[in-house]
Design goal:
Oligomer: single chain
Shape: globular
CATH topology of the largest domain: D-amino Acid Aminotransferase, Chain A, domain 1
Number of helices: 9
Strand order of the largest sheet: 3-2-1-4-5
CATH class of the largest domain: Alpha Beta
Number of strands: 18
Radius of gyration: 21 Å
CATH architecture of the largest domain: 2-Layer Sandwich
Order of helices and strands: EHEEHEHEHHEEEHEEEEEHEEHHEEE
Number of domains: 3
Strand content: 25-35%
CATH superfamily of the largest domain: ATP-grasp fold, B domain
Structural class: alpha+beta
Distance between the termini: 31 Å
């Protein structure tokens, strides 16, 4: 049984549970003892903040103690730190190279990267280089934002100037895409080959995370996901966001080198991404399965919970009160 360490576990109980169902022994860590995903893992631990000098040392100790063979970061927060220290771990860190993480973490640099390689991306400008005929509407976007934070929509020049003054983060301006938005959940091997590419519609999102969607077996979107992933040299999972602005043109707006917020949907559609990750950790070289998934699978999300109680100074899940007496 392969032990998997999940960092910044947060609310991603869906991912932790999927790896357990795939046969992994799960070790989840977070700075917050109330992070719900901790209580869906076989082993849980509270760790220091990411900027603590001892953060990596604590993870190294957990890897050694539990025989961890695979490390899966669940947010963007510690990706660069783990990628830069991957040689210290006696385990596979499921991340691309640090340069890729820096690139995808800066949406302006990512735009320039895609433009230079012939991958369509919406017209974008730095505030000091705006053309006189800005094609409104446009977005003022934080270069390093996430979860739809730091994004403002401007309908005219007056609004644009206001939002540029309002934005506290380093920002740029991007034309609003027309057409339908899609997310593509991809998974690549350690050589950067795209093993899976599963598009889904964005029927509804909240805070930048999909809460309603449907898988769609569209060959153009499957191929677009593969091209973007392999051009970036993704290792492991990534979520690609794009718009279809014309029948034969898709424009990429964001890439996150981690499992996407809509993870349950491609999983239900047969992605087998947890199994592929475990295979990579075991030294295997799975073959691509592009287009091998179930289309027309819908996802609609809801809130759930974990109730805890203090047991000798440690938080433990509350016994199921509805369970029949022994």
């Amino acid at each position: 049984m392969t032990a998997v360490l999940f960092t910044c576990a947060g609310q991603r109980a869906d991912i932790v549970s999927a790896f357990r169902e795939a046969g992994a022994r799960t070790v989840a860590v977070d700075v917050n003892p109330l992070a719900p995903a901790l209580y869906h893992a076989d082993v849980r631990a509270v760790v220091p903040p990411i900027d603590d000098p001892g953060y990596v040392e604590v993870l190294l100790a957990l890897v050694a103690e539990h025989g961890v063979r695979l490390i899966v970061p669940l947010t963007d927060l510690d990706q660069l730190l783990l990628a830069e220290h991957r040689e210290l771990f006696d385990a596979l860190v499921l991340l691309p190279d640090p340069d890729v993480i820096r690139l995808t973490g800066d949406k302006w640099l990512a735009h320039l990267f895609f433009e230079a390689r012939g991958i369509p991306s919406p017209p974008s400008w730095l505030a000091g280089d705006l053309p006189d005929d800005v094609p409104f509407p446009v977005l003022v976007k934080a270069r390093r934002g996430f979860g739809s934070r730091g994004i403002y929509r401007a309908e005219d020049r007056e609004q644009l100037d206001f939002f540029l003054r309002l934005a506290s983060a380093d920002s740029f301006v991007q034309r609003v895409c027309s057409g339908e938005e899609f997310s593509i959940d991809v998974f690549c091997d350690l050589d950067g080959r795209c093993l899976g590419s599963i598009p889904r519609t964005m029927l509804e999102s909240k805070g930048g995370e999909s809460i309603k969607g449907m898988t769609i077996k569209d060959p153009a979107l499957v191929e677009f996901g593969r091209v973007v992933a392999e051009t970036l040299e993704i290792r492991g999972p990534a979520n690609i966001q794009c718009f279809r602005v014309a029948p034969d043109r898709h424009e990429v707006t964001d890439v996150n080198p981690r499992f996407g917020g809509g993870f349950p949907l491609p999983t239900a559609a047969g992605s087998r991404y947890p199994e592929l990750a475990l295979a990579l950790a075991a030294g295997e070289r799975p073959e691509p399965r592009l287009g091998d998934f179930r289309e027309g699978v819908y996802m609609t999300r809801f809130f759930s919970h974990v109730c805890l109680t203090d047991v000798d100074g440690s938080l433990e899940p509350l016994a199921d009160e509805a369970a029949a007496p022994a």
